[in-house]
## 1
Amino acid sequence: MDRLQLVSILAAATLLLVVLELVRRRRLLERYALLWLLAATVILVLAGWGDGLQRLATALGIVDPPNAIFFVALGFIVILLLHFSAAVSRLSDQTKVLAQRLAIMEHRMRRLESDQRAPAPEREFGSERRRTPFALRDVE
Amino acid sequence: MAHLRHLAVVPAYNESATISQVVGTLKHAASHFDVLVVDDGSTDDTAMLARQAGAAVIRMPFNLGIGGAVQAGFVFADEHGYERMVQVDGDGQHDAAELNRLEIAMAQDPVDMVCGSRFLSRDLKYPAPISRRTGIHVFAFLLSRLVGQHVSDPTSGFRLYNRRAIKLFARDYPHDYPEVEAVLMLHHHRLTMREVPVRMFLRGGGVSSISTGKSAYYMLKVLLALFVGLARRRPVVEPGDEAPVAASQGI
């Protein structure tokens, strides 16, 4: 077993343990941990199983088998980054929706408060006044 | 029982085909329950139909998934001081008329959660495809060993909770596919549960949150959560603990 293989095994095993520990401490949701666990496991298997690495290298046309580990690791990095981009996209979309709901809610609340404070005579135009373009009674 | 306040929580995501009937049956068969529909960011008129059928409706601003939606129900029940909460799926697969079975079970035997199980009775056959049943049985086998009590249907979402269980799950509830983990959480907190046989129908309409493509992810996620959950000294946040998503930095 050459040195690179040993280093790869150690690195992948450490990654595996760190990810599991983060899930255990609830710093990482299972949703985001699964891909990391998959990546660490595959690299661990490839690094530990020389024959499999050899075969993969041949199949991919890589002359030096240890380079296949880098190749696979790089592949996982690309997939993980894409995964995060998708997650960030979803989060920004959700933040946008939250901000919109909050702004509409604030408007409704202010209108409710000003309606409550308004003295009785003013209430007469009240029904008209409330029909501003921003009246959101019908918004679900 | 009439002096206790009861809430039925119906999580619903695009269930316009069935929601009116589900709410209607609840109002008819379990009239001492207030009905709260948690509309999990539906894009159809689920919320409107639920309101028309006489339910209170809270709408999630976007789709949170079943865990987040049901937890909203727990928080609602907790904040409004409900003593009992039942969870009934919005797709019509649970028979609201059987709610009294859960209630009777809880009245006879003071457990914290009563769970309706599809697999406890021989004459109530559950017409699900074999793959789904196999998945459920794998979880049932594992979970039964983990909690040291026979659990026949850990994925059932037809559950009645008492005040202690409501408070626990309002504080902390799993994100995705929560039912299996919730049983483990109960066990870790020394809360008790039992199962009663119920009948379940295949969904009346709409699309299940668990498509075939997601099944593998579902299995993996729940297995990971179960095994990591075992390694947690305190699997659920207790009052006074650090918050589950705390501001503390780093790894």
## 2
Amino acid sequence: MQCPESLRVQGYFDAELDALSAADIERHMESCADCRALYQELQQLRTAMREELPPVHAPPELRARIARALDQESLGHGAAETAPPWPPRRSRNWRTGSFWMGAISGLGTAAVAAALGFVLLTPLRTAPLVDELLNAHVDSLLSTHLVDVVSTDRHTVKPWFAGQTDVSPVVADFEPQGYKLVGGRVDYLEHQRAAVVVYRHGAHVINVFSWSATPRSIAGKVTRNGYHLMFWRIGDLQYCAVSDTGWDELASLTQLLQGLQ
Amino acid sequence: MDDRRRRFEAQVLPHLDAAYRFARWLARSPDDAQDLVQEAMLRAYRGFDALRGSDVKAWLFTIVRNCHWTALKQQRRRAQVPLPEEHDTLDAQALISPALGPHEESIRRDEALTLQRLIERLPEEYREVLILRELEDMDYRSIAAVTQVPLGTVMSRLARARLALKKHWLGQLEAESRAVP
């Protein structure tokens, strides 16, 4: 069994963490032998790959071939083809979510949805949404931005949302049932400020996103990259719980949350 | 030489070595890699006006990779095999097939496996993130852009690729050091 922090140790090793998270992981590694070993193995592997693999250079004849091809191109065709700008300029520019959306936009949406195993009512609009949710979830795990307001008290978290977002989601602590309320956060989702309620279940983080529902509600389950996403709707609020826990654990929390309504 | 060509040679051609190195991991032979890079450079030149300042290397690599997949589709030499996707339970052992590849028939299983051969045996989508990270020193967002998958997928593939290599390669090293009296 791997330490749940192993992805962040990898992120630290790859210099992808911000300073606060990096300090956090350094502290963690002091007390976690597994993660110290992992870090050492990552270093060994990198050293080996960078030092033992034979260096590869483009052969001179390739340079010559390319120069000839470019000469021909300049002479023959003159005008350049019009290509779409790269990277694609969309709402989040160089962010991967939009890049992915761009990458699949040319394909049949139904086919994409089928290939990704969606069991949702509205695959047409959920494909980018799932990416948005997943990226938001992963970002929250990698950065120190897991919570904006730290509190195990729902009476603190719920009013805090009122000043930060347009929605007022269900907030409750279920520590006796194993779902400890950690705090709240605001993420941009579906072009609005979504409220995120953060729970801890054992070593796992569960992000419960909520935002103003559109006329077409989303319900159902999706698994992507090992993460589970469970969608439901209450009134005019759309919810989605995201985690790498098992389905049963996620379902228990969503039932607790739905039972409060 | 016109201005556009000069700008292309100044901005893109310095990445030729890296592009060829990447292509060698994608293509099956040095000749195929040369064809691939030539085609990619030509396309890059045609689409050069679409490049807006940003990461030239990642842009070029995206084109190399797209050319590679286009060529593969056209050739249809390989039977379609479903790629293993990420699962909840990580089975790093299963990532590297114990069976020897077609080029390795003469190599007996008890011979030392080099790091290179282990990497070659990784499934392509795991190998490419590993190569881009370790050999080309790209950050996660550039890798996500080149391979056209979300950031989370880059991280999980990278973790799985490293785990699989660790098990096989470090295991190999330990076995060797034990064998030395």
